[in-house]
Amino acid sequence: MEQRGRVEIGERIKRYRLEKKLTLKQIEALSGVSATHISEIERGKSSPTVGALSKIAAAMGTEASYFVEEDELPEVSFVRVGERRRYRFVEPPVAIESLSGTIPHSRMSVMLMAWESGAVATGEVNRHEGEEFLLVRKGILEVFVEEERYILKEGDSLHYHASNPHRIENIGDSICEALVVTVPCFKI
């Protein structure tokens, strides 16, 4: 690893450790990596192995990728209405606006989704890791989770484990709009 990259990783580790108010000895106890080695990494005198970096990150409650990302992400994401990332899909006819930006360690996505009448958002049956939360703002959705059918009208919400087979459809005669939160992040 080149000197500049080594120093940046070390600085990020130290800054994060200090923000978490953790000592080198505490990280050593949690990670099994010696305090001396962690100090050398923080000062740019040594490069961490992938294994050591993963252990240090886990000890601080984060992932190793946080310390090696190209860009440092802001701690707070402020998204103005005119600056939302927007996606439009033809099949199924669904529009998505990302309401959440990117912050370090984020595990959720918050979106505003709009289904045209008759649009089936997740195909016949969908299942994946994580959780989903829906809050209907306008229109009517039919959601199947396992074999159970839920009709969501304006103001209704539903929260479920996405590993359960599920299917979402706009059964109304106009656009249905819902706030959707997914954990982990929804990748488009």
Can you list the strand order of the major beta sheet? Answer: 1-2-3-9-4-7
Question: What is the helix tally?
Answer: 5
**What is the domain tally?**
2
Q: Pick out the low-confidence regions.
A: none
Q: Rg to the nearest angstrom?
A: 22 Å
**CATH level 1 class label of the largest domain:** Mainly Beta
Count of distinct strands: 9
**CA-to-CA gap between the ends?**
32 Å
CATH topology (fold) name of the largest domain: Jelly Rolls
Mean pLDDT: 85
**What is the strand content?**
25-35%
The CATH homologous superfamily of the largest domain is called Jelly Rolls
Proper CATH architecture of the largest domain? Sandwich
Q: Which term fits the overall shape?
A: elongated
Tell me roughly what share of residues is in helical segments: 25-40%
The run of helices and strands is: HHHHHEEEEEEEEE
Please state the structural category: alpha+beta
The major β-sheet equals: 6 strands, antiparallel
Brief descriptors of the model:
188 residues; alpha+beta; 434 Repressor (Amino-terminal Domain); Jelly Rolls; 2 domains; 3-stranded antiparallel beta sheet; 5 helices; 25% helix; elongated
Task: Describe this protein's structure.
The protein has 188 residues and is α+β, with helices and mostly antiparallel strands. The chain folds into 2 domains: 3-68, 434 Repressor (Amino-terminal Domain); 81-183, Sandwich (Jelly Rolls), CATH 2.60.120. The protein contains 5 helices and 9 strands, in the order αααααβββββββββ. The chain has helices at residues 3-19, 24-31, 35-42, 50-59, 65-68; strands at residues 85-89, 94-98, 109-115, 131-138, 140-145, 148-153, 157-161, 166-170, 176-183. The strands form 2 sheets. The protein has a 6-stranded antiparallel β-sheet, with no helix packed on it. A 3-stranded antiparallel β-sheet has the order 6-5-8, with no helix packed on it. Helix 1 (3-19) packs across helix 3 (35-42), helix 2 packs across helix 3 (35-42) and helix 2 crosses helix 4 (50-59). The longest helix is centred in the first third of the chain and has 17 residues, at 3-19. The protein is elongated and about 65 Å long. The model has no long low-confidence stretch (mean pLDDT 85).
